[in-house]
Amino acid sequence: MTKVQDKAISAFVTDVRAALEGQDPTVIADLTDNLEADLMDRQASETDAFQLGNPKLFAQELLASAGLLSVSSADSRAMRFWRGVGSAVWRFLKSVRPAWWVFRGLMAYTLIWFVLLQQEKYIPDNPGAWLALAVMVVLSVQIGRANSRNLAIRLPLAVLNIVAVLVAGYWLVGFNQVRDNYQRMNVLFNSGLLLQDGRVVGFAYAYDKNGKQLPMAALKDGNGHLIYQPPASTDLPPALAATVGTALPNALASLTKLGAIVEISYQDLPEVQSGHVASVQVSYDALGSQHVQLVVAK
Amino acid sequence: MDSSQLLKGVLDTAVLAVLENEDGYGYDIVRRLREAGFADIGDATVYGTLRRLYAAGLLKTYVVPSEDGPHRKYYAVNTQGLKALQQQRGIWVEFATNMSRILGTPNTFSEGKSK
After folding, report:
1. Which of A51, A108, A229, B48 could cross-link with A62 by S-S, CB 3.0 to 4.6 Å?
2. Which domains does chain B have, with CATH numbers?
3. Chain B residues touching residue A10 (CB < 8 angstroms)
4. CATH code of the region A231-297
């Protein structure tokens, strides 16, 4: 009986050594050199209760308690690396959690403003709105600081965080639109162009009460500041003057070569041949572009 | 919480303490720990711990020939091991005192010490 058990112990130790394969031979020797004798001692001590167990698990337990389990193979080194990366990312995210709590408060403010008041408020613009934002931020930070481990609290909180992320997407799109509009208006306001309801005014004309256009030297506001000054009138260039009396297609061909912006108006002019140019006017807009107005006989 | 989890944190100290009294070989140390109350401790856990403490320079070894079986590798605490044990003993007393205070249980360790 004892010899059978001795053989079983020898086989067990062989299996343990096989399970330790890949370790430094010195380590294997340190861990197993006296293992057979120790197991025989245990066998003598425990008699009928003696069991050898699983050699692989025994080897794992040896390595774990010796502090060698995590460096047993190349695979575990790779896993250790990625665990390290994951751990570093997690530690970083944990360190910026307060920033997320503040941002979450802003998202809550945006959402409540939108849901309750049907208004898109990305940035507070009055004391009441700033107060509402402050309340939301404090609330969000306090919830974050509580760091509850209660599942009944953590689950709804996770849902709220997901909602906050969705609102953040909506908020970023809306905020970008507001910013783009602001930048566009800023460019227009700084351009020096005359604006009417956000549109650029190319020309300004003055008319009397009978609807007759008046000659205008300058347009000024109530403080005497110049708003618009028409370009100084010039005599028609010969190329434009030459279009008078010509057929419209021929006139257009000439004007196209000059690169002018052409505006055509048709009038009943019995004295002029139909489809021919009766008169030409030239003007310049605030951007300095040349506009040619052709009056053509119907 | 079971005591095996707690034991993992203090096993090094327990092994050093067992060897402080008397040198021992692998299974002998396991047996002494079990007799001290750690009945469920695995022998592989103790053998691995011995190897780790030896690699850390806290233990020394020597071989004792045996007439009726294989030679035995005995472990003994060296000077560095004794220093480490002394330090861990102080940490344990403080820890146990604090835990006893929190749990409202009699601090038998401190009482025993004061006698």
Report:
1. B48
2. 3-114 (1.10.10.10)
3. none
4. 3.30.10.20
Residue B15 one-letter amino acid: V
φ/ψ region of A224 (left if φ > 0, alpha if ψ in -120 to 50, else beta) reads left
Distance CA B45, CA B49 (A): 6
pLDDT per residue, tens digit, chain B (115 aa), is: 566 677 778 899 999 999 998 999 999 999 999 898 888 888 899 999 999 999 999 999 998 887 777 788 899 999 999 999 999 999 999 988 888 888 887 766 554 444 3
Q: With contacts defined as CB-CB under 8 Å, which chain A residues touch B48?
A: 31, 61-68
- More confidently predicted of A105 and A214: A105
Q: Which of A116, A128, A120 is nearest to A181 (CA)?
A: A120
Say if residue A136's pLDDT is above 80.
Answer: yes
Q: What are φ and ψ of residue A263, in 5° steps?
A: -120, 130
The ipTM assigned to this model is: 0.82
Work out the burial of residue B24: count CB atoms within 10 Å of its CB; fewer than 13 is exposed, 13-18 middle, 19 or more buried. buried
* More confidently predicted of A186 and B28: B28
The answer to whether A66 contacts B49, with C-beta atoms less than 8 Å apart, is yes
Whole-prediction pTM: 0.44
Q: Look at residues A11, A92, A5 and name the one whose alpha carbon lies nearest to residue A46.
A: A5
B40 phi and psi, to 5 degrees? -90, 5
The β-bridge relationship of strands B59-64 and A290-297 is unpaired
| Domain boundaries, given as residue ranges, for chain A | 2-89, 96-189, 199-228, 231-297
> Are A38 and B47 a contacting pair at CB < 8 A?
yes
The C-alpha of B5 sits at a distance from chain A's nearest C-alpha, in angstroms, of 13
Q: Which residues of A261-281 are buried (b: 16+ CB within 10 A; e: fewer)?
A: ebeeeeeeeeebeeebbbbbe
